[in-house]
Amino acid sequence: MATNSTIQSEDTNIRKYSVKSYKGLVKPRLLKFVLDNRITDLMDCFTRNGYTVKIAGGAVRDMVLGLTPRDVDLATNATPEIMQEFLEREGYRTEPTGIKHGTIMVVLEDKLTVEVTTLRIDKVTDGRHAEVEFTNDWQLDAARRDFTVNAMFMDKSGEVTDYFNGVVDLSELRIRFVNNPVDRIQEDYLRILRYFRFYGRISAVGNKHEEHTITAIRENAGGLKTISKERIWKEFQQIIGGDHCIALIKLMYELGIAEALDLPLPGNFKELDRVWKVHKQAVFYGGCGLNPEVIFISLLEGGTEHSVGELCSRWKMSNKEKKLAILIVIQRAIFTKLVIKSSITQEAYTKHCKDLIVEGQPQSHIIQLMMYLARADEEIEKVHKWEVPVLPVTGHDLLALGLQGPELAKVKDKLKQKWKDSYYILSKEELLKLV
């Protein structure tokens, strides 16, 4: 049930608005599960001390959708210093994680952490950072948020307060910026990627965008060059992991976002499409799917170890992510040559993959490689369950035979190759006889 009232904002740039309140929107079972005693006790602490506190943003969005939120964030009209004072007085442990922007973290039982943020407006923004000013106006705080579906609040009884039609947008599976898309984007250019991320999570179709939203994104795509690659990669991973990945990434190229982000040009969409289908099939059948960096690197046509490594470094990927991306590019080229020569059988390629593991590649990386190349499930399962053997001959064994230095290393490499050729069955004694 929704009720309406009209409130005049203290901000003269925002006209009168209609705020809607919904009761019974969130299922009682979900509400009871999310708002357990730890959360409700914390909220009661604010009420006892004369302040209002509500659940904010993404947690409200998820609960309206019938989903369990990963995190519960709170908003309050208490300033950081005031809430720290009364929370600590009542026995709560707090950490001033973002006190400059009004946020403190409260550590509850079982290491549950909750971020509580003072109502605020963005006084000055530069497309990356914001200088904030605290306010008592809940609508002004909602107005500074990115999307209508993220601009709702909910009290502990489950009543949802909606300032910008977020409930209706959720019911229609639609993503809209709060008020003017240009203003929201220019406050933080990362919101361009957040738009694609939430579109992939919520929209039912891959290409139903509002024209004024697309125009605002196209005209401001260059602003993404000012955003750190760490923030960009974090968002991009979630775009890849959501729905409509192919349609959204193609649209990014059309809007000039690819150039701003330093995505591979011109973009290998044929390979991306093939790999995405492999990923979705694996997820559908209960597998873990492909890692984001694996799907990302499919956009690259060719590449050497050096060029792939440079691209991954520019995107601020971790060393583990970079090594996997390099492995994929190098091994897919080798696989293509084997296919062209018609010299690949399932048994031979399984052996090749096992050799890569023996040579030091993580088993998990090889599983990703085999999935990427769409190898048969039974072939992947063999490698997944394989107990990796260890070369039975050690350096100490060869030292005992009088070998040392470069000669020892050379002999050990030859013995290792003989052992691999034997399908890892030659014993220590058999290998030492070869010396």
UniProtKB/TrEMBL annotation:
<dbReference type="InterPro" id="IPR032828">
    <property type="entry name" value="PolyA_RNA-bd"/>
</dbReference>
<feature type="domain" description="tRNA nucleotidyltransferase/poly(A) polymerase RNA and SrmB- binding">
    <location>
        <begin position="210"/>
        <end position="261"/>
    </location>
</feature>
<keyword id="KW-0460">Magnesium</keyword>
<keyword id="KW-0479">Metal-binding</keyword>
<keyword id="KW-0808">Transferase</keyword>
<dbReference type="InterPro" id="IPR043519">
    <property type="entry name" value="NT_sf"/>
</dbReference>
<dbReference type="InterPro" id="IPR050264">
    <property type="entry name" value="Bact_CCA-adding_enz_type3_sf"/>
</dbReference>
<dbReference type="InterPro" id="IPR002646">
    <property type="entry name" value="PolA_pol_head_dom"/>
</dbReference>
<dbReference type="GO" id="GO:0001680">
    <property type="term" value="P:tRNA 3'-terminal CCA addition"/>
</dbReference>
<keyword id="KW-0819">tRNA processing</keyword>
<feature type="domain" description="Poly A polymerase head">
    <location>
        <begin position="55"/>
        <end position="176"/>
    </location>
</feature>
<keyword id="KW-0548">Nucleotidyltransferase</keyword>
<dbReference type="GO" id="GO:0046872">
    <property type="term" value="F:metal ion binding"/>
</dbReference>
<comment type="similarity">
    <text>Belongs to the tRNA nucleotidyltransferase/poly(A) polymerase family.</text>
</comment>
<keyword id="KW-0547">Nucleotide-binding</keyword>
<dbReference type="GO" id="GO:0000166">
    <property type="term" value="F:nucleotide binding"/>
</dbReference>
<protein>
    <submittedName>
        <fullName>CCA tRNA nucleotidyltransferase 1, mitochondrial-like</fullName>
    </submittedName>
</protein>
<dbReference type="GO" id="GO:0000049">
    <property type="term" value="F:tRNA binding"/>
</dbReference>
<dbReference type="Pfam" id="PF12627">
    <property type="entry name" value="PolyA_pol_RNAbd"/>
</dbReference>
<dbReference type="Pfam" id="PF01743">
    <property type="entry name" value="PolyA_pol"/>
</dbReference>
<keyword id="KW-0694">RNA-binding</keyword>
<dbReference type="GO" id="GO:0016779">
    <property type="term" value="F:nucleotidyltransferase activity"/>
</dbReference>
